[in-house]
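job 3f2a | input accepted
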Amino acid sequence: MNAFPISLPQSSGREELLNLFAQDEIVLVPDRLRLTLGAKVEHSSLVNGANLRPDVRRLWNVDAEPVIWGPVSQANRLPSLMEKTAAVRATFIPPVTPSPFPIIGALIGDTAPKPERLTSYQIGYRNAVHANLTFDLTAYVHRYRDMILATGNPACGLAGSPPAHVQCAVQFQNSSDGKALGGEAVTDWRPLESLRVRTAWTDIDLEVPGAAAGAARSPTHQVSPRLSHDATEKIQTDVEASYVHGLGSANTLPTDTTVDARLAWRPERNLELSLTGRNLFEPRHVEFLNDPFFTVTEVRRTFVFAARWSF
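job 3f2a | predicted structure (311 res):
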């Protein structure tokens, strides 16, 4: 594809992806302690060499119900075709004296990128404190290496096609490391056989030194309660709310709360009819801000009718 906003010089090609996965589970203490060892070796023609992704998981049953688990994993992300070969015209400045040429800001690919690497450390605790109440706690540390970002000072030069202009380009590079600290708590409560209340809370602190404003976007806090009720054997209702706080750093969105609801009816055992309403409390809301690639889009209130037949 060769268009003005985005051009991919390599319009077609061949990619080879080979991978091998192995896993073994070792019982250290019967019915109490298990160790799972796994590894995946992957080779892609997009990058040079093979990538190793080891994984170690420990599961400890403290008693009949409480469970403690703690995986250590490594993952790699291969560069996309855009990060490798594309040229993206992100900004346009009309001719201004003394320059007779317009100025175009661009992002260009790195012809020899390395995969991004993630090392994840997690620990979790799960317990059924009552026959009708269960909770999960999870904490994690994620370390990112060789993150592909568009950083550095732009290189400017005169270009002739499309019509003559000055192009100031920044290149995608494996230029930064990052870290994420976070946790999650989930409760599952069944006060009645027909009623279920599930609440999830998450917190994350994401640090990416050198990233442009808004490049590392992730909500700081999220709370999502969900209520499910079986009114009869054939009628079910679900109501879910979502509270989001702290999206981005320099580009911070206001606190956002949304509510969705679903009503389902099963006239027959294998037939379900449902009506779902999303974003019920406001006609529209913004979830992301402007950046070089996307324009602000407001999510509108929507209603969806669905019919599902199983056999």
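job 3f2a | The helical segments are 81-85.
job 3f2a | closed
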